[in-house]
Write a structure and sequence with these properties.
The chain is mainly β and 332 residues long. The chain is built from one helix and 24 strands. The strands form five sheets. Strands 2, 3, 4, 22, 23 and 24 form a six-stranded antiparallel β-sheet that branches. Strands 1-8-7-6-5 form a five-stranded antiparallel β-sheet, with no helix packed on it. A five-stranded mixed β-sheet has the order 13-14-15-16-20, with no helix packed on it.
Length: 332
């Protein structure tokens, strides 16, 4: 999804992170380390159809930092908001150098997500937030274990209780344990999907072994399928300015370690009952600066260049890292 430019008043409230009685918002000091080379030991910067622009490794003395599973940047690429699979919002500002490359993080804040009663649940199965989209006056979040899509007020998401929900479309019986709704994205208004929200399961498959997905709203909602290529699983999704879909996918095994790839899907193929597949833009594994890559946000600049920002989920493990990586799409 390319985020439309938001009006200044909305942006002001969108990131107005003021503590309130129901949601304690915590300011977190984040330390960053520059990642200048994507491939370890090499100054190469082109990988598949992407150019690596730089990255950051994030750390903090505050244990709240981590588990980041989705992210969305504002149109000017200076501010972000996201969700963690511990049931928390996070947000902050991006510092950039004179060349527009990542240089640091400022004003980082974290707050618990509130249910429809305005309370924070401590039940992990009910707060496994994985995906995030912005549509109209709401931020919609997809949850994996108790698979659902809930909407929060865009004006103040960190203080908002869940105020509405969207139909998932995929039958509940089809969701596999810990493999339910993972990614959610909003299509372009001028594309064949006409701005509809689309959602993807992580490891829930049909009898042919293809992943369940769904057009959630719009004029033709319904279930479709994504060709699964084991051992990869979908972790996030977003739409390009031309309407096509990008899927962020991850693999992990003891033998091969961690891997990451991005697949491009022709938007014209996404329709009810279809099975879709696409070209691989990048596919990397051990020897590259990646971790458990979970979140993706697509933005553009005034020159029409397309940027892909990725974040990783460290699972609050000392063996993993919180990474923010940025690429430019070379194939428009």
């Amino acid at each position: 999804m390319r985020m439309r430019r938001l009006a200044a008043p909305i942006l002001l409230f969108f990131f107005c992170l003021i503590p309130c009685a129901n949601a304690d918002i915590v300011k977190v000091d984040v330390n960053t380390r520059l990642i200048e080379n994507f491939k370890v030991g090499s100054d190469e910067d082109v990988f598949g159809h992407l150019q690596f622009l730089g990255g950051l490794e994030l750390s903090s003395d505050n244990d709240l930092l981590g588990a980041m599973s989705a992210i969305r940047l504002t149109a000017d690429r200076s501010t972000f908001i996201g969700v963690a699979d511990t049931g928390h919002w996070y947000g902050g500002n991006i510092k950039r150098d004179d060349n527009g490359r990542l240089s640091g993080i400022a004003s980082f804040e974290i707050a618990p997500m509130l249910n429809e009663e305005g309370k924070y649940s401590t039940a992990k199965w009910n707060l496994d937030a994985e995906g995030l989209v912005i549509k109209d006056e709401y931020i919609y979040v997809s949850f994996e274990r108790n698979s659902r899509i809930e909407g929060y007020k865009l004006a103040n998401p960190m203080q908002s209780a869940a105020v509405k929900s969207l139909p998932v479309q995929i039958p509940k019986r089809e969701f596999r344990r810990n493999g339910g709704l993972e990614a959610i994205a909003k299509s372009q208004v001028d594309s064949p999907l006409e701005g509809a929200i689309v959602a993807f399961s992580e490891r829930s498959v049909n009898t042919e072994g293809d992943l369940f997905a769904a057009i959630i709203d719009g004029t033709e909602p319904g279930v479709f399928f994504v060709k699964r290529n084991p051992p990869y699983n979908i972790t996030d999704a977003d739409f390009l300015p031309n309407g096509d879909l990008l899927l962020l996918e991850r693999r992990f095994s003891i033998a091969r370690g961690i891997g990451m790839r991005i697949r491009r899907i022709d938007v014209s193929t996404i329709k009810k009952d279809a099975t879709v597949d696409g070209d691989i833009l990048i596919d990397v594994g051990s020897g590259y600066q990646i971790d458990n890559m979970e979140g993706m946000s697509i933005t553009t600049n005034d020159q029409g260049e397309v940027f892909i920002t990725l974040i990783s989920d460290d699972n609050h493990s000392f063996l993993q890292r919180n990474l923010m990586l940025e690429f430019k799409l070379l194939q428009q």
